[in-house]
Amino acid sequence: WAGQLDVEQSAKKIAELIEAGANVFRFNFSHGDHKEQGDRMATVRLAEKLARQKVGFLLDTKGPEMRTELFADDAKEYSYVTGERIRVATAQGIQSTRDMIALNVAGALDIYDEVEVGHTILIDDGKLGLKVIEKDIAKREFIVEVENDGIIAKQKGVNIPNTK
Fold it and tell me: Where residue 110 sits, what CATH number does that domain have?
């Protein structure tokens, strides 16, 4: 569902699905807020009444995730060029700057010890690759080399392949 929900029409269509054998409806909590999801569930509940049949809900919740932090200088994005060296901070509660990308790790998990020199940090679905070339134990930061020209914006997803 995208945009404004026509509850009555949607409930009728969902009731048809129930009558055709659908018995579970999945709600993806990676998209939309709790109110939107609640409205969708209420629509399915209305469809249950129309179809005179109960169904189950499958709640697909987001697992732990890492994102780039907000930018300290209100920039909309930062550009990087291949070979450039910057830092990646693992401490929680700090903001990113042009020279230091701060990570927001769900549950404030400490990832520093899991990442090793040679690992790649991928930002925004791999649009920017960063190779860990050194670890700063005192600051719990990574010194990284930019692997490809790229632009990142705030609060983009971060993946670190080959880590726990």
Answer: 2.40.33.10
Interior/surface letters 16-52, b for 16+ CB within 10 angstroms, e for the rest: eebeeebeebebeeeeeeeeebeebeebbebbbeebe
Number of domains in the chain: 2
Rounded Cα distance between 140 and 115, Å, is 11
Structural domain harbouring 113: 66-159
Residue at 164 is within a domain? no
Q: Do 71 and 55 fall into the same domain?
A: no
pLDDT higher than threshold 70 for residue 70: yes
- Whole-model pTM: value is 0.64
Nearest of 20, 16, 29 to residue 57 by alpha carbon: 29
Token reading at 14: 């969902």
pLDDT of residue 25: 96
